[in-house]
Amino acid sequence: MKKKLLETDVLIIGGGSAGMWTANRFKDLQPDKEVLIVDKGPKDWGGLMTMAGGDFDAVMPDENIAEWMEDFVYYFDGLCDQPLMEEILKCSFDRMQDYQRNGCAFFKKEDGSLKSVPQRGLPHVKLYPAQLKGRGGEMMVRALVEQLQQKNVTRLGRILITDLLKQKERVVGAVGFDTLNGDFYVIKAQAVVAATGVGGWKTSYGKNTPTGEGVELVYKAGARLKDFEFSRVWNMPKYFGWEGQTTLMPLGGRFVNALGEPFMEKYSPILKANTDPHFTTIAMAMEIRAGRGPIYFDISQINPDDLVLLKPQNGWQLMNYEKLRDLGMDLFRDNTQWVPQMTISYGGMDAGIHGETNVPGLFAAGTARSTEPGVYAGGFALMTTSVTGYLAGEGVARFLAEQPRLEITLDEDGISSLQKEIYAPLGKDGLSSKAVLTEIQQIMFPYNVSILKTETALQDALHRLKTLQLTKIPQMAAKDAHYLLKLREVRAVAFVSELYLRASLERKESRAGHYREDYPQRDDAYLGWLTIEQDAAQQMHFAWKPVPTEQYKYPITRYYSDNFTFIKKD
Q1: How far apart are CA 334 and CA 155, in angstroms?
Q2: β-pairing verdict for 184-194 and 170-178
Q3: pLDDT tens figures, 324-350
Q4: What does DSSP assign to residue 478?
């Protein structure tokens, strides 16, 4: 294994939507500076954006941003970072236009206007479907990569960044390893952007790669985190993962129980089926517990003419659809069995509008920063990752313009210690990371831990997880660099799981995507963000950051969760 030293002005960790937008905007502002993007996946693969359908939220020029803001304040049950969200919405149409100028087409009606699909029963929020269903995200990746090539942005794949380097209090680079040949990388940088995406539990298809190692490395560097009590518990077909319910539901799709009853009408008489999936999965869990499972997805109410918006036309989604159809499972012909599935964490870094964090020299972009409290409108991720990446590019450019260039002196002893720790599991006999991952999933996936949370279940899960972290995690071994990557991913999954469990115990109320069955009411004593930092004793320190209602423009007068009978009003 070789040791390689690289130097750049800006290091971007993560080559998905947010990372590429950060690089793109930074090079517009400082074209003479060097930018290096490093990703654990293949070079230019584009992260989760490659797997996305391409649907995009945007406020059209003739629409009122204030109306969209009022929707999001309501939808987020008050946990809306209003200055950030307003800036995201202001920039959304420009980023959509950027994609269109670069050849990414969105679905149009016969009169040539863009087709929109309303979201989650919200009056104004809507998404715009990609023209090439199943390949929209892939086309976006290609467009951005072409831009980066023209601007001479260096991109490296198959390298996992494990630790950030600091000089005094400022982040000045990172270390990691090549996941194919094992080479050790030391990278010096004047600024670092974490665009590493979210943590998760390695469930279906596209959610196999966001595992939280980015969360772990920024936490160790002193970054403040937030929103880890919120996770994405989605509804998925039992036998396969699928993109598209954000379009299916507004067009008439609905869930029914084993008796054929459209049960969401009982739990939410106003919104019925067209609601956020997190509330649907709560109802699904309650129906199954009451003996009215399994749950089926009913397509009988969808206009056949609307299926053109849903059926994949090309790419991996079409291949997946055809294979499943050949096995007798056709999502667009039959009622299929669906189940709740815990997929990813919504927790991330606490950051300012331009991605600045509490650690000098460290910026956050995309889903590496937290933007939503466990509820999700279709098309939201492609909008927020593009805009927050764009804004982070501006933030880094301003930071480097204002700061004198730093002469970076590496702590060679510290780097050697990190190198030794990284490679310690290689060539040893021990537990497989896959076996340990299965145990973590068994701890985290029960309904009373992931959906209908209770104190007893969360405490029990935390005890089991801490035992696993002390006994099983240190015993994991890797036969080569590829399995060393898998080992680090599983270690990060355990870390994110601990953050989730501890944060879920702290928020003793039900709000947005967090439901405590033992605290089913909303309590405005918890109207704030739960932050997490590492203290001097290397312990997790939790603190509440109240929503500054007296400073915010949009008053909190309505709550989305009031639409559901299992949430008790305060």
Answers
A1: 44
A2: antiparallel
A3: 788 787 777 778 899 999 999 999 999
A4: B
